[in-house]
Request: fold
Amino acid sequence: MSNTKKQLMTAIAMLVVAALALGTSTYAWFVSNTTVKVDSMTFTAQTVDDLQIALTTDAWTGALSGTSATPDTFKTLITSADLNALYTSKGAILTGAALIPASTINAAAFFKVADGAASWEVDQSTGVNMAKTFEQTNNITDNCVKAIPLYLKSTTGTSIYLGTNTTVQGQASPAVRVAFVVEGGSTYIWAPNPDNHIDDYKITTTGDADGITKAVDSTSTVGNITGYTATRPSEAIATLTANTAKRIMVYIWLEGCDVDCVSGLSAKDLTVNLEFTSQNS
Reply:
Protein backbone atom coordinates (compact mmCIF):
# COMPACT_ATOMS: atom_id res chain seq x y z
CA MET A 1 0.00 0.00 0.00
CA SER A 2 1.41 3.42 -0.94
CA ASN A 3 2.24 6.02 1.70
CA THR A 4 -0.45 8.31 0.28
CA LYS A 5 -3.11 5.63 0.65
CA LYS A 6 -1.91 4.80 4.17
CA GLN A 7 -2.13 8.45 5.13
CA LEU A 8 -5.63 8.66 3.67
CA MET A 9 -6.76 5.57 5.59
CA THR A 10 -5.26 6.98 8.78
CA ALA A 11 -7.06 10.28 8.26
CA ILE A 12 -10.38 8.48 7.71
CA ALA A 13 -9.83 6.40 10.84
CA MET A 14 -9.15 9.55 12.87
CA LEU A 15 -12.33 11.12 11.57
CA VAL A 16 -14.31 8.04 12.62
CA VAL A 17 -12.77 8.14 16.10
CA ALA A 18 -13.58 11.86 16.38
CA ALA A 19 -17.17 11.24 15.30
CA LEU A 20 -17.55 8.48 17.88
CA ALA A 21 -16.07 10.71 20.55
CA LEU A 22 -18.49 13.50 19.70
CA GLY A 23 -21.31 11.02 19.84
CA THR A 24 -20.37 9.96 23.37
CA SER A 25 -19.95 13.50 24.72
CA THR A 26 -23.67 14.19 24.83
CA TYR A 27 -23.56 14.55 28.61
CA ALA A 28 -20.64 16.97 28.84
CA TRP A 29 -21.62 20.32 30.29
CA PHE A 30 -19.74 21.15 33.47
CA VAL A 31 -16.15 22.27 33.05
CA SER A 32 -13.65 20.65 35.41
CA ASN A 33 -12.26 23.92 36.79
CA THR A 34 -15.55 25.43 37.91
CA THR A 35 -15.40 24.77 41.65
CA VAL A 36 -16.22 28.23 42.93
CA LYS A 37 -15.76 29.83 46.31
CA VAL A 38 -18.21 32.63 46.95
CA ASP A 39 -16.27 34.40 49.68
CA SER A 40 -19.04 36.78 50.65
CA MET A 41 -22.72 35.96 50.34
CA THR A 42 -25.15 38.53 51.71
CA PHE A 43 -28.82 37.63 51.94
CA THR A 44 -31.92 39.55 52.95
CA ALA A 45 -35.61 38.80 52.59
CA GLN A 46 -38.04 41.54 53.51
CA THR A 47 -41.76 42.14 53.36
CA VAL A 48 -43.85 45.25 52.89
CA ASP A 49 -47.55 46.01 53.21
CA ASP A 50 -49.33 43.56 55.52
CA LEU A 51 -46.95 40.65 54.92
CA GLN A 52 -44.71 38.99 57.50
CA ILE A 53 -41.92 36.49 56.98
CA ALA A 54 -40.21 33.73 58.98
CA LEU A 55 -37.61 31.03 58.62
CA THR A 56 -38.32 27.47 59.67
CA THR A 57 -37.91 25.92 63.09
CA ASP A 58 -35.57 23.07 64.03
CA ALA A 59 -37.98 20.60 62.41
CA TRP A 60 -36.20 21.21 59.09
CA THR A 61 -33.32 18.77 58.59
CA GLY A 62 -31.53 20.75 55.90
CA ALA A 63 -32.93 18.54 53.15
CA LEU A 64 -33.37 20.29 49.81
CA SER A 65 -36.95 19.06 49.71
CA GLY A 66 -37.78 21.38 52.60
CA THR A 67 -40.39 19.05 54.06
CA SER A 68 -41.43 18.55 57.70
CA ALA A 69 -40.94 22.09 58.95
CA THR A 70 -42.99 24.84 60.58
CA PRO A 71 -42.43 28.60 60.76
CA ASP A 72 -40.43 30.33 63.44
CA THR A 73 -41.06 33.89 64.72
CA PHE A 74 -42.62 36.13 62.08
CA LYS A 75 -41.10 39.54 61.32
CA THR A 76 -40.53 41.85 58.36
CA LEU A 77 -36.84 41.18 57.67
CA ILE A 78 -34.66 38.07 57.44
CA THR A 79 -30.92 38.79 57.40
CA SER A 80 -27.72 36.87 56.66
CA ALA A 81 -27.21 36.50 60.41
CA ASP A 82 -30.61 34.80 60.74
CA LEU A 83 -29.88 32.44 57.87
CA ASN A 84 -26.35 31.71 59.06
CA ALA A 85 -27.69 30.72 62.48
CA LEU A 86 -30.11 28.30 60.82
CA TYR A 87 -27.35 26.79 58.66
CA THR A 88 -24.98 26.43 61.61
CA SER A 89 -27.64 24.53 63.53
CA LYS A 90 -27.79 22.02 60.65
CA GLY A 91 -24.01 21.56 60.46
CA ALA A 92 -23.84 23.53 57.22
CA ILE A 93 -21.98 26.64 56.07
CA LEU A 94 -23.82 29.55 54.50
CA THR A 95 -20.78 31.22 52.96
CA GLY A 96 -17.01 30.80 52.74
CA ALA A 97 -17.11 27.17 51.58
CA ALA A 98 -16.54 26.01 48.01
CA LEU A 99 -19.84 26.44 46.21
CA ILE A 100 -20.01 23.46 43.86
CA PRO A 101 -21.97 23.94 40.62
CA ALA A 102 -25.24 22.04 40.39
CA SER A 103 -28.01 21.64 37.84
CA THR A 104 -31.75 21.03 37.82
CA ILE A 105 -34.68 21.21 35.46
CA ASN A 106 -37.37 21.86 38.08
CA ALA A 107 -35.77 22.72 41.46
CA ALA A 108 -37.13 19.39 42.74
CA ALA A 109 -33.97 17.33 42.17
CA PHE A 110 -30.48 18.81 41.96
CA PHE A 111 -27.42 17.10 40.47
CA LYS A 112 -23.67 17.64 40.84
CA VAL A 113 -20.76 15.97 39.09
CA ALA A 114 -20.14 12.49 40.48
CA ASP A 115 -16.87 11.83 42.27
CA GLY A 116 -14.00 10.18 40.40
CA ALA A 117 -12.04 10.64 37.18
CA ALA A 118 -14.51 8.48 35.26
CA SER A 119 -17.07 11.29 35.54
CA TRP A 120 -15.07 13.41 33.09
CA GLU A 121 -14.07 13.24 29.45
CA VAL A 122 -12.43 15.53 26.94
CA ASP A 123 -14.91 17.20 24.62
CA GLN A 124 -13.50 16.67 21.14
CA SER A 125 -14.97 19.89 19.72
CA THR A 126 -13.42 22.17 22.35
CA GLY A 127 -10.61 20.17 23.93
CA VAL A 128 -12.08 20.98 27.35
CA ASN A 129 -12.42 18.40 30.13
CA MET A 130 -16.15 18.26 30.82
CA ALA A 131 -18.52 16.24 32.98
CA LYS A 132 -20.55 13.29 31.80
CA THR A 133 -21.74 11.53 34.99
CA PHE A 134 -23.72 13.12 37.81
CA GLU A 135 -25.15 12.29 41.22
CA GLN A 136 -28.03 13.80 43.13
CA THR A 137 -27.33 16.26 45.92
CA ASN A 138 -29.91 16.19 48.70
CA ASN A 139 -28.81 18.41 51.58
CA ILE A 140 -27.41 21.88 52.23
CA THR A 141 -24.31 20.26 53.75
CA ASP A 142 -23.20 19.30 50.21
CA ASN A 143 -22.45 23.01 49.53
CA CYS A 144 -24.12 22.82 46.13
CA VAL A 145 -27.44 24.57 46.76
CA LYS A 146 -28.39 27.20 49.29
CA ALA A 147 -31.91 26.21 50.37
CA ILE A 148 -33.91 28.79 52.31
CA PRO A 149 -37.24 27.73 53.81
CA LEU A 150 -39.32 30.90 54.06
CA TYR A 151 -42.86 31.25 55.39
CA LEU A 152 -45.12 34.19 54.63
CA LYS A 153 -48.42 35.19 56.15
CA SER A 154 -50.84 38.11 56.24
CA THR A 155 -53.77 39.16 58.41
CA THR A 156 -55.84 39.36 55.24
CA GLY A 157 -56.06 37.13 52.21
CA THR A 158 -53.71 38.52 49.58
CA SER A 159 -51.50 37.73 46.60
CA ILE A 160 -47.71 37.72 46.88
CA TYR A 161 -45.45 39.40 44.34
CA LEU A 162 -41.69 39.86 44.10
CA GLY A 163 -41.05 43.57 44.60
CA THR A 164 -38.78 45.81 42.57
CA ASN A 165 -36.13 45.64 45.30
CA THR A 166 -35.61 41.95 44.51
CA THR A 167 -32.06 41.84 43.11
CA VAL A 168 -29.12 39.48 42.70
CA GLN A 169 -25.82 41.26 42.36
CA GLY A 170 -22.11 40.58 42.57
CA GLN A 171 -19.34 39.12 40.46
CA ALA A 172 -20.70 35.58 40.80
CA SER A 173 -24.20 36.53 39.65
CA PRO A 174 -23.96 35.73 35.89
CA ALA A 175 -24.13 31.96 36.54
CA VAL A 176 -26.56 32.15 39.48
CA ARG A 177 -30.10 30.80 39.50
CA VAL A 178 -32.75 31.55 42.11
CA ALA A 179 -35.78 29.26 42.31
CA PHE A 180 -39.03 29.92 44.15
CA VAL A 181 -40.99 26.77 44.91
CA VAL A 182 -44.39 27.66 46.29
CA GLU A 183 -46.14 25.19 48.57
CA GLY A 184 -49.09 23.82 46.61
CA GLY A 185 -48.28 26.18 43.73
CA SER A 186 -45.87 26.93 40.93
CA THR A 187 -42.10 26.83 40.54
CA TYR A 188 -40.08 29.70 39.09
CA ILE A 189 -36.42 29.34 38.07
CA TRP A 190 -35.00 32.82 37.63
CA ALA A 191 -31.73 33.75 35.90
CA PRO A 192 -31.19 37.24 37.33
CA ASN A 193 -28.28 38.24 35.06
CA PRO A 194 -28.51 36.11 31.91
CA ASP A 195 -26.82 38.64 29.64
CA ASN A 196 -24.20 40.00 32.03
CA HIS A 197 -21.36 37.71 30.98
CA ILE A 198 -18.14 37.56 32.98
CA ASP A 199 -14.93 39.00 31.55
CA ASP A 200 -13.34 35.68 30.62
CA TYR A 201 -16.49 34.32 28.97
CA LYS A 202 -15.06 31.61 26.74
CA ILE A 203 -16.85 28.31 27.17
CA THR A 204 -19.56 27.21 24.77
CA THR A 205 -21.60 24.33 26.15
CA THR A 206 -21.73 21.15 24.15
CA GLY A 207 -24.87 19.31 23.21
CA ASP A 208 -28.02 21.25 24.04
CA ALA A 209 -27.70 21.70 27.82
CA ASP A 210 -27.34 25.45 28.33
CA GLY A 211 -29.00 26.00 31.69
CA ILE A 212 -31.69 28.03 29.95
CA THR A 213 -33.78 25.57 27.98
CA LYS A 214 -32.22 22.32 29.19
CA ALA A 215 -30.23 21.07 32.17
CA VAL A 216 -29.25 17.89 33.99
CA ASP A 217 -32.22 15.76 35.05
CA SER A 218 -30.57 12.48 36.12
CA THR A 219 -27.18 10.86 36.57
CA SER A 220 -26.52 10.93 32.83
CA THR A 221 -29.30 12.68 30.91
CA VAL A 222 -30.58 16.14 30.10
CA GLY A 223 -34.17 17.37 30.16
CA ASN A 224 -36.27 20.45 29.46
CA ILE A 225 -36.26 23.14 32.16
CA THR A 226 -39.71 24.08 33.46
CA GLY A 227 -40.56 27.46 34.96
CA TYR A 228 -37.47 29.29 33.61
CA THR A 229 -37.59 33.07 33.40
CA ALA A 230 -34.90 35.62 32.51
CA THR A 231 -36.87 38.42 34.17
CA ARG A 232 -38.24 38.87 37.66
CA PRO A 233 -41.67 37.17 37.72
CA SER A 234 -44.30 39.90 37.37
CA GLU A 235 -47.34 37.79 38.18
CA ALA A 236 -48.42 36.79 41.68
CA ILE A 237 -46.28 33.83 42.74
CA ALA A 238 -48.58 32.78 45.59
CA THR A 239 -51.90 33.51 47.25
CA LEU A 240 -52.35 33.66 51.02
CA THR A 241 -55.33 32.83 53.15
CA ALA A 242 -55.74 35.23 56.10
CA ASN A 243 -53.52 34.32 59.07
CA THR A 244 -52.34 31.09 57.42
CA ALA A 245 -48.64 30.69 56.70
CA LYS A 246 -47.47 29.41 53.33
CA ARG A 247 -44.00 28.05 52.62
CA ILE A 248 -41.89 29.29 49.73
CA MET A 249 -38.65 27.34 49.34
CA VAL A 250 -35.94 29.54 47.86
CA TYR A 251 -32.97 27.83 46.19
CA ILE A 252 -29.77 29.59 45.14
CA TRP A 253 -27.11 27.80 43.09
CA LEU A 254 -24.52 28.12 40.34
CA GLU A 255 -25.99 26.51 37.24
CA GLY A 256 -23.28 24.18 35.97
CA CYS A 257 -24.69 24.19 32.44
CA ASP A 258 -24.44 27.98 32.17
CA VAL A 259 -21.67 29.19 29.87
CA ASP A 260 -20.65 31.64 32.59
CA CYS A 261 -20.01 28.90 35.15
CA VAL A 262 -16.23 28.99 34.70
CA SER A 263 -13.19 29.48 36.91
CA GLY A 264 -13.42 33.25 36.52
CA LEU A 265 -16.14 33.15 39.17
CA SER A 266 -13.71 31.92 41.81
CA ALA A 267 -13.49 33.97 45.02
CA LYS A 268 -16.29 36.30 43.95
CA ASP A 269 -19.10 37.84 45.94
CA LEU A 270 -22.86 37.49 45.80
CA THR A 271 -25.66 39.60 47.23
CA VAL A 272 -29.25 38.35 47.16
CA ASN A 273 -32.05 40.68 48.22
CA LEU A 274 -35.63 39.43 48.09
CA GLU A 275 -38.67 41.62 48.59
CA PHE A 276 -42.18 40.20 48.95
CA THR A 277 -45.14 42.51 48.54
CA SER A 278 -48.90 42.36 48.07
CA GLN A 279 -48.68 45.06 45.38
CA ASN A 280 -47.83 44.31 41.77
CA SER A 281 -45.14 46.76 40.66
In short: DSSP finds two helices and 19 strands in the chain. Residues 137 and 150 are 21 Å apart (CA to CA).
